[in-house]
Amino acid sequence: MRLQFSTTQLYGRDQELAELQRIYDLVAEEGTSRLVLLDGYSGNGKTSLVSHFGRSILQTRHQQQQNDSSPRSDLLQLEDSTASFALPQSTTTRFIKGKFDEHNRKPYAAFVGAFRDLIASLKRHCHEECDRIAAIQKAVNDHKQSSVLFDIIPNLKDLMEEEDDDAAKKTASEGSHFFRRSSIEKNNNNNTISATTKQSTGSSRMLQRIHELHFQFKAFVRAACAGGPVILFCDDLQWADQSSLELLKALASDGSSRNLLIIGAYRGHEIEQNENHPLSWCINHLKNEEYLPAERLYELELSDFPLGDLNLFVADSLELAPEKTMSLSQVVWSKTHGNVFYSKQFLQELVDKELITFDFAYFRWKWETELIAGATDLSENVVEMVAARIRQLPPSVIQILKIASCLWYSFDVTVLEYIVVHSEERIKERRRSLKRLATATPFLSEQGVQVKDQSKVMQGLQAAKEQGLLDQTGANGYKFGHDRIREAVYSIIEEGEERDALHIVIGELLWYMFHDSTKSQQWMLFSAVDQLNKVSHRFQKSDAGQGLELAKVNLEAAECAMGVSAFLPAIDYLKSGLQFLGDNPWEDVANYRFCLTMHSKLAALEASVGHTEESEKLIQGTLQHAECFEDKLPLYVTKVESLGVQGKLKEALTLAYEVLEGLGEAFPQNTTGKRFQRAVQSDTSLTQKLLSKHNDATILALPLLQDSRKQYALKIMNLLVDSAFHLGEMMQLFLIINRMIRISLEYGLGDVSGVAFALYGFSLNSPNGDRMENYRYGKLALLLQERLAAKEWECRVLVFVYVLLNHWVEPLQKSLNPLLAAHSAGMQHGDIDYAVQASGAFLTLYWYSGNDLNFGVDEMRRFSAQMKDYKQEKALAIYLPLFQCLLNMTGPASDAALLCGEAISQAEYEEKKFTNSTIMSYQMQLSYYFNDMERAEELSTSLQKVSKSFNAHYLFVARQFFFGLISLRVAMDSKGKKRRRNIAVANRVIKEMEQWTQRGGINCLQKLLILNAEQKALNFLRQGRFCSKKEAVESVREAFDISIATAIRSGFPNDAALACERAAAFLDRCNQDAYWVQSYASRAVEYYKLWGANAKVDQLTAIYSRGLSTDLSSTPVHAPFRRSSVTYDHEKVLCAEVQVRQKDSSEKSSVRISNQFSSEVVLKAARGLLKGSGSLRDGSESVTYRDETTARSMDELGSGWLEPFQQSKLDERKS
C-alpha cells in the first residue's frame, strides 16, 4: 500500500514564496529583469518550491483575467511537459523549466528543454499568443542567415512563417542533419581521416561565434518576453557545463532584457567542496556589480523542514490532526532532519515494513512510536532505502529502469522502447566480449519495435509510476520522481561487466539512432559519446582499431559541439578522443592525418577560451610531428591569433612575417629607415600598376581564390591589420594592405578581399590625395562584400568605408544608417569589437551631423549599456565623454561648460582632463560653445600637438574646425605675438579646409565658410578704422549669411546656429542696430532648438533676453534622423539616406533683391573660394573643380539655396 503525498500543498515555505512573489512583481510592474539563485541540499524541496510558485503565478493571472474579461474556462490549461507550465489565454506570463543532468552533460541542456517546451506550447496556442510569436519570428528572421538557434532549439523552425520552397527545404535539411556536418573525410582504401587544408575555426573566429550565439539567444529571449513576463527556471546548476553557464551569465546581465525572471537552483554544499567548480566561478562573476547590478541579483537559501512544518506534512500525508502525529514526526525528524524527499521515502518504508499500517475498521493509519524508534533494519541512507524498494519490482521493470537511469533525467518513451528491445541480445554479447565496439557495423533501421514489445515497456513504466518512481510528462514522456531515485536505480546496476556492457550497448544504439535520418536528434550523439566514454578504460589499451573508432566518434561529437559554440564541451570530447589513441599516437603512420586534425582543433579551441598555456604546449608538440609546412599552417594561424589576443603584437608580427615568407610573401625584415620606406613605395607602385590593368567591373568579376597557400596568406595578413594599426606601424600596415590587394588581383578573391579594398582606399588618404579615388575603392569594397557574402567581415567593411572614406564625398548624414547596419552585422556574427566601433562611430558622426541630440542621448544610453554588458572598457573610455557632452548640451546641467555629470564623475574628469584626448576634445568644444575661452584655448593648444597623425576620420575635420574657431576668437581679444600666433593657426586650418573642400569634402564647406566669415570679422576689428564701416560690416554679414545658408541647405542646423550666434556677437560688438543683433540671435535660438541643444537655447535667451524673436516660419528645416532597415542594397546608394526637407518659398518668383546679394553672385563667390582664393569674391563664370562630385554638389545647391534668407532680408528692409 502506498501513501499519497500532496503535490499541490507546500509546507514551511511561506517566506520564500513571498520573496519570489515580490521579485516577480518587480519584473512584471517595472518591466525589468532579475536573477534569483536558490541554494539548498538535495531533496529539500527547491524544485517543488519553484514549481509551486510558477503554478500560483499562472493561476493568479488566470483569475485576474476571469474577473476582467470572463474568458472561457475551457481555455485554462496547466501543462507539465518536463515541468513546463503555460496558460494559453494569458499573454502576460510564461513559466518554463529546464534541468541539467549529472550523467549526460549535453550543452545548453536546461535552455534547450525550457525553450523547446515554450515553442511547442506557443504553436498549440498560436491564436492566443500571436504577439509573442510575431516578436519571436521577427527576432529570428533578423538573424536567420547565420542563426544557430535552429540547431539548439530544433522545433523553433516550426514556429517560423513559411518561406519559399527552396529555403524551406534547405532549412529542413540543415536543421535535422546539422550535427552530422564535419570536416572528416574517410579514405575508403586505408580508413584514415584527412584534415581539410582550409580551416574556418581560428581562435578569434571561435570567440566571434560565442558572441554570435549569445547575441542571437538574447534577441530571441527578449522577443519571447515581448508578450509579457517569462519565468525561466534552470534546475541543478551544479551540473551545468561551462558553456551553459556562460549563456546564463549573458542572459542575466543583458541590460536590454525586459520582463525576464531567471531562477537558478543548485546544491551549494557540492560546489563549496571545489573552489574551481565552474558554478562557483560563475556566481562570483555575477556578484560583481560591474557585471550585474546588485539590485538585479537575489540569493535565497532553502533549509530543511523544522519539526513543526514536518509535522504538518506528516499529518496531511496520514490524513490526521497534527497533534496526533507529533510523536511520529519527532522520530521521522530524528532520522531525516527535515529533508523533504528523505522524509517521504522514510514514511513509505515504514508502510512497506508494516510499521505504519492502515486500520480498515477505523479508516485511519496507526503505528507504534516505540517500535519505529527502536527498529534496527531501517536504512540510514535514502539511496539505499529507495534501491531496496526497487529490488522488489519484477526483473523486466528493473531492467527498463536500469536503461532509463543511464539515459537522461527525463526521456522519450519511443527512444526507451527502441533501446530496451534491441539491447537484450547485445548486452549478453558485450558481457562475453567487452573489447569489440560495434559502431562500424551497419545498422538496420527497418528493425522497428513490435507492438507487443511496446506494450511490455509501457507496462513496466506504468508499474514504476505506481510505485512513485516515475512521473509522466505529456503523452509520450516520463521522468524520474527525483534525482535520488535515479541514483538509486543506477546503484543497483552491478559495477564491472554489467554496467560497462550496458553503457556500451546504449552508446552504440544511440549512435545508430543519430545516424538514422528518421530518428536523428542532437542529444543522441552527445549521449552516445558520453556512454562510450564512461567505459574508456576498456578500450584505451585494446587494439588500435577500436581506439581509433572511439576517437572518431569523439571528434564527431566535438565538431557538433563547436557547431553550437559549445567550445568547452568540444575540448573535453577532443581530449577524450586523444586518450583513446594511446600514449604515442604519432607512431602509427596511418593515423597521422587524424592526429594532426585532433591536435590542431584542440589547440585552436584552447586558445579561443583563454587557455593559452595549454594551447602553446599543443602547438609546440604538434609542430614537432608535422611532416610539412602546409600541415603546420593551421597551428601558425592559431599562434598568431593567440599572441594578438594576449597583446603581444610585435611577437605576432614577427611570427606572421616568418610564416608569410614560407608562403612566398616575404616582407622586409628591417621595418625602419629610408630603405624600408623605399620598399613600401616600390610595393605601392607595383600594386598601382596592377590595378591600372583593371576597372571596377573586371575586379568584381575576378574568380574566387582557390590556392590554399594564398588563402592562408590572406588570412594571416588580415590578422596583422589590427596589430600594425595598434602599434602605430602605418608603413607596415600599408605594406600589408598592398599585398592583400595583389593576391586578390593575381590569384582570386578571398573572404577578406572586401576588407582589403576598403583599407586600400584608406591607405591612399593624404593631404593632397584624390578623395574620389579613395571613395571609389570604398564603393568597390562594398560591392565585393556583397558578392563574396562573407558575413563575418561585413561589419569591418562597413566601418572602414563609412568611418574613413564616405564622409569625404557624400553628405555626412548618409553614413549614419550604414553604421547602424554595421553594428547589427557585427553583433549578429560575433565581431563585438568592430560592432562597438560602429556604434561609437555612429554616435560621433551623429553629434556632428546636426540631427536631434535628444535621439542621440537615447541611443547613447542604449549603446553604452551594451558596451558595459560586453566589458568594452576601452570603448567606454572613448564614448562616455561624448555621452556627457550630449547630456550637457541637451541640459539641464549645473555647469554646461564642464564635462562632468552623469556619464563622467568629477573625480574621473579631474584625473584625466589633461591626459585623455577624447575628454579634452569634447571639453574644448563645450568650452567654446559656452564662452569659457580660457579653458578652450588651453585645450586647443594641447590637442594640436596630438591631432596630426590620424586624419581620415571626420572627427579630425571637426577638431580642426574648432581649432580655427578658437584661434580666431582668441585673436580678436589679444594683441602682439599671441594674436599673430593664433592668426597663423587659423590660416593653417582655413588652408586645410580649402584643400579638403576642393578635393570633394562637401561636409567641410559650411565649416570653411564659417571660418571665412570669422576671419572677415577679425580683419574688420583689426582694420575697421581704415575702411568704410558700413561696407565692411555688410561684407562680414554677407559672409555669415552665406555660411548660414550653406549649413541649412546641407542639413547642418548645428553649424547654422553657430554661424548665427557668431554673427549676432559680431554685430553686437560693433554696436550695430539692435534689430540685426536680435534677428541673428533669434535664428540661432531656433536652430539650436532644432538641433536639440537646450542648454544653448537657455544661454542665448539669457544673453539676448529683450526683443528675441523665434518666428522662423520661412526657414527650411531638415527632418529628424530616422533609422532605416539594416538590410540595404549596396548598389542603390548602399544606405538609407537621411532625408533633408526644404520648405519652398511661396513668393519664389516675385522676390527680387539687389544684385549685391543675389544667389548667383553668392554661388560664384563660394566657387571662387573653392578655387583657392582664400576670400569670398564674385569670381568668374568659368569656375573649375578638381573633381566632378564637388561640382555636382555645388550645382545641386543651385540658385535656390539662399531664397529663405533673401525673403527675410526683403522683409527686414520693408520694415
From TrEMBL:
InterPro entries: AAA_16, Hybrid_Histidine_Kinase, P-loop_NTPase
Key word Transferase present: yes
Top-level taxon of the source organism: Eukaryota
Keywords: Kinase, Transferase
Location of the region described as Disordered in the Swiss-Prot/TrEMBL record: 1175-1200
Basic and acidic residues composition-biased segments: 1178-1195
Residues in Orc1-like AAA ATPase domain copies: 9-74, 90-263
Keyword check for Transferase: yes
A GO MF label: kinase activity
UniProt-listed PANTHER family: HYBRID SIGNAL TRANSDUCTION HISTIDINE KINASE G
Listed name of the protein: Protein tyrosine kinase
UniProt source species: Seminavis robusta
Lineage per the UniProt record: Eukaryota, Sar, Stramenopiles, Ochrophyta, Bacillariophyta
